[in-house]
Write a structure and sequence with these properties.
Elements: E1 11-17, H1 23-33, E2 37-42, E3 57-61, H2 63-70, H3 73-76, H4 85-91, E4 96-101, E5 104-106, H5 117-126, E6 161-170, H6 176-181, E7 194-196, E8 209-213, H7 214-217, H8 239-254, E9 257-267, H9 273-295, H10 306-321, H11 325-345
Parallel strand pairs: 1-2, 1-4, 2-3, 6-9
Antiparallel strand pairs: 4-8, 5-9, 6-8, 7-9
Length: about 350
């Protein structure tokens, strides 16, 4: 992989801690994380003391920090469960953020080498994306490939890549119904590819393994949609899927790109899909309304910043989907997030 021009001190690693003991997790990542500053945000609902490994440059945020900075109980609820990581996005002052779930460890590639997921995210973000015209050799900026015949030279500069969506081995990121029907299925296929998600194409974004340019689209990586019975396992939530739909619309509107594929992480087995069915089934049904809404969404020329875009999306959610209280509350949360970002997220380090 070609070398990136992004310096280590331009990157924050953000971890949302939804389990109390991160010692093993951090030790597994030590060879990769040790060069970077870490932000760990403890789920404010967690009662146990958080345990971490020693020897890292790390800042830990807990419920008292969230309450102090955010204020009201309503706003603080934005950061419960998996959504605690968004508080890390809010308080970071680095240009780039890389974020992994706390049940993931470094993966092995198809040659049995350990994958440096941070380096691959950084590479994805530091090279252009090509959303306007699909390149059939995938990412033309990777070593050993280029643009194929017929690709217009006028489009070969691409656009800035704002979001890098990695993948995972072992426990696939299925919803609870699909996982319950395939309880023994594990993803073992390592695909050595990165591609740009085309303009106006939506995708099921997952917060398990991501990187993004905070300066370009920071406010678009947001906590919003919360299920009534949201749980503490990925298949008991859709907050990250909603976040990704918002972020993709913002990227398309502002002229940025989104990449998916490498890097991979390894997801450890966790949770019971059958037990989670009742909690996530509401989210499965919500996506039947939410995805068509985002596919049809067009923002106005007045939306020129990520904050503008999020505010406009929230207003349209209220207008088009607001009869459902979950969507209405998501719109309110998005507007609260924009206010918080303007107040807290734009300060100096």
């Amino acid at each position: 992989m070609a070398q990136s021009s992004i310096a280590d001190n331009e990157v924050d690693i953000v971890i949302g801690a939804v389990q109390p003991d991160l010692t093993s997790f951090m030790n597994e990542w030590r060879p990769i994380f040790s060069r970077f500053h870490l932000i760990i945000v403890k789920d404010p609902d967690m009662k146990e003391e958080l345990k971490i490994a020693e020897g890292f440059d790390v800042k830990i945020y807990q419920k008292s920090d969230i309450d102090k900075l955010v204020g009201s109980v309503l706003k603080a609820r934005l950061f419960c469960g998996y959504s605690c990581r968004y508080f890390g996005y809010l308080v970071s002052r680095k240009k780039y953020i890389i974020s992994f779930d706390d049940d993931c460890v470094p993966a092995k590639d198809d040659k049995d080498f350990t994958v440096d997921a941070v380096a691959q995210h950084i590479f994805n973000l530091s090279t252009p994306a090509t959303p306007l015209f699909f390149n059939t050799l995938y990412d033309p900026f990777r070593e050993g490939t280029d643009f194929v015949r017929g690709y217009p030279f006028s489009m070969r500069n691409g656009v800035p890549c704002a979001l890098s969506c990695g993948l995972w081995l072992n426990l696939a990121d299925y919803d609870a119904p699909t996982q319950a029907l395939n309880p023994d299925h594990r993803n073992t296929r390592y695909v050595d590819a990165v591609l740009t998600v085309p303009l106006s194409v939506m995708m099921p974004f997952s917060g398990i393994n991501i990187g993004f340019n905070r300066e370009l689209i920071g406010p678009a990586l947001l906590p919003g949609l919360r299920l009534v019975a949201e749980g503490k396992f990925r298949w008991e939530t859709v907050e990250d899927v909603w976040c990704g739909l918002c972020a993709k619309v913002v990227c398309d509107h502002l002229g940025y790109g989104v990449k998916t594929g490498l890097p991979y992480v390894h997801r450890n087995d966790r949770g019971d899909a059958i037990a989670s069915l009742k909690k996530e089934w509401a989210g499965v049904k919500l996506m039947e309304e939410g995805v068509p809404f985002f596919l049809s969404l067009k923002l106005s020329s007045a939306a020129v910043t990520p904050e503008d875009c999020v505010s406009e999306i929230a207003a349209l959610v209220k207008e088009k989907l607001g009869k459902n209280s979950v969507f209405s509350q998501a719109a309110d949360a998005m507007l609260e997030w924009v206010k918080l970002w303007k107040k807290v997220g734009t300060g100096s380090s």
